[in-house]
Amino acid sequence: MTSTDPTLLPAAFADLAPLAARWARPTENERNAVRHAATAGEFAAFHDALLPRLDALLTYLRDCPPRPEDPAQRNALMLACAYAEAAPHHELYGGSSEVPFSFDARRFVADHGDEAL
Amino acid sequence: MQETIATLDHIRRSVPQIREELGVDPIPVGAIRDPAIYELEKERIFRKVWLKVATAWELPDPGDYKVKELPVADTSILIVRAKDGRIRAYHNVCTHRGNKVVPSKGFESFGRARANVVTCRFHGWVFGTDGALKSVPMEDAFGHLDKACLGLREIACDEWEGFVFVNFDPEPAQSLRDYLGDFATLFGGYPYRESTTAFRYSTVLKCNWKVALYAFSEGYHVPTIHAGSLPGFRGIEHSDFKLIGPHASSTIYGAGMDTAPSTGIFAGVLHGSDSHAPRPDLLPADINPKRRGDFQFELPNIFPNLLIHLASGCGYPGLSYFTHQFWPLDHGTTLWEGINYFRPAANAAEYAAQVHVNALHRNAWLEDTATMEDTFTGIMSGAIDDMQLMDQEFLIRHAALTLNSYLAGDKQ
Ligand code: FES
Ligand SMILES: [Fe+2]
User: Fold this and answer.
1) Peptide bond connecting B304 to the previous residue in cis, omega within 30 degrees of 0
2) Domain ends where: B143, B171, B199?
3) Which of A95, A102, B67, B135 is 20 to 30 A from B397 (CA-CA)?
4) B229: which chain A residues are within 8 Å (Cβ-Cβ)?
5) Cross-strand partners of B369
6) What residues contact A94, with CB distance under 8 A and at least 6 apart?
7) Average pLDDT of chain B to the nearest whole number
8) In the listed set B102, B137, B171, which residue is the last one of a domain according to the structure?
9) Is B84 inside any structural domain?
10) Closest residue to A55, CB basis, from B265, B355, B370
11) Do B348 and A64 count as a contact with CB atoms less than 8 A apart?
């Protein structure tokens, strides 16, 4: 859980604030919960908006530490991580929130699942 | 290094040699189905051979400890870096009346022994990280207490390349180095300890531990079960078979896969960085000895329950290596642990890219694990008595034969 406003992004990415509000979360477990509840349309919209900006977003993040303290930098990283995990659902899994023909993802325990970025 | 190549030629096998040496007959599934076999496995394998339980970089400083629950050995163990810098292992059992010295949550947990001591919460007996019993409240009231003999019960513990192994045999038949044998040479020298960024997943599977182990021990399943997460995987070749005593190894080559657009961009970040780019030059000399450009990873089976897939960034972008372990909880229940290891990210872009690669790989594991409970149910049904194994499933054949020879008491 974060007390800072997740929609506060670096100026160049300020227009992505609604996506940040919908997807960006500090921990893998929280991002998983968002993913597991998302629809094909939402995955598509996230992908269509983010992919064209991904290069720029990663270029920006290259100048940030791996665990940024600055709120805008941290939110930009949370957004990138949310997309990192959401993209395959659109690109590979036909919009399904589950990996097709897979084990129940909720039974996988991530040691780092509650570690905040 | 040239010398190493020459010395390891004896572990290499062609396909005809593998067939000749291990046979081509179906392998009975009785060892998976029969609960009595599990009791024998506990006694003749899990209490006799070296088992990986930790890594040195999980315990960087003196006093750092890990508690691991090992139902397969009917115990909880305390692995601790002692004051002298050495990692030691003990039964996590208080010598007063048997309470757990360090209470634990889940199958493994970590902590730090302050002032290099751990204190049992029941009555306050204090043990040093060297195992010695240091102090006993109201010691005089015991009449006689031989503190020198009441240290924590030590378990043989040794390290190879920073992987920490224990052996429950009070007098192990072999040192860890001898047990690993040529495996230690084949996989030795890679800077494992530099890849300290770990994404660890675990789950409890309703299947015998060997079902889970075998599912991760072959490349035959990749084009089918991973059609979702590894689409268009081209030119997969599972070759360079090696037999190494109880262990075995092999190589997965492949021309790669149809990369999704997002993966291409994330991969670019890692491939553009010195510490995450493919480093075939860091592979030990006997792995991918021709330094083929389509090398993906080396797939070994370290008897009885460990796989270390060494990629050096050549397969999944930036992925240094990954490990699987399969801990029986009982005959039909297994704790699976899968860990992806990367070098630490130098910036937030590298970290986000690692999160992407980790997610792709975790999702592939979700495809792998999907088969295991069904496979076990099928084997338990009694409908089949054997498994049919093809060449690329030789690690399974070899592990099953090795298991049989341990159970028969041919090896110890
Ligand atoms: S059982 Fe540990 S102090 Fe009594
Ligand atoms: Fe697989």
Assistant:
1) yes
2) B171
3) A102
4) 88, 92, 99
5) none
6) A40, A100
7) 95
8) B171
9) yes
10) B265
11) yes
Number of neighbouring beta carbons within 10 Å of residue B88: 21
Across-strand partners of B43? none
**Residue B411: pLDDT band by 50, 70, 90 thresholds?**
low
Residues present in chain B in total: 412
Give the domain range for residue B298: 2-43+182-407
State pLDDT tens for residues B140-166.
999 999 999 999 999 999 999 999 999
Which amino acid does the sequence have at B357? V
Residue in chain A nearest B203 by alpha carbon: A108
Residue B1 pLDDT > 70, yes or no?
no
- Per the CB < 8 Å rule, is A66 touching B201? no
Instruction: Pull the structure tokens for residue B8.
Output: 């390891």
Mean local confidence (pLDDT), B4-31: 91
Q: At B328, phi and psi to the nearest 5? A: -65, 135
**Identity at B190, one-letter amino acid code:** Y
Nearest CA to ligand 1 atom 4: B123
- Is B148 within 8 Å of B35 (Cβ atoms)? no
Examine the domain organization and report whether B55 and B85 are in the same domain: yes
Measure the CA–CA gap between B321 and B329, rounded to whole angstroms.
26
Integer Cα distance of B195 and B403 in angstroms = 32
Mean pLDDT by 10 residues, chain A (117 residues): 70 96 97 98 98 98 97 97 98 96 96 93
Task: State the total domains in chain B.
Answer: 2
Do residue B363 and residue A61 have CB atoms under 8 angstroms apart? Answer: no
Task: Give buried/exposed letters for B54-64 (b at 16+ CB in 10 A, else e).
Answer: bbbebbeebbb
Using CB atoms, pick whichever of B204, B356, B368 lies closest to residue A84.
Answer: B356
Cβ of B201 less than 6 Å from ligand 1: no
Burial class (CB in 10 A: 0-12, 13-18, 19+), B97: exposed
pLDDT, tens only, B241-251:
999 999 999 99
Q: Decide: B245 and B181 in contact? Cβ < 8 Å.
A: yes
CA of B97 to the centre of ligand 1 (A): 5
Q: Nearest Cβ partner of B262 from A54, A67, A101? A: A54
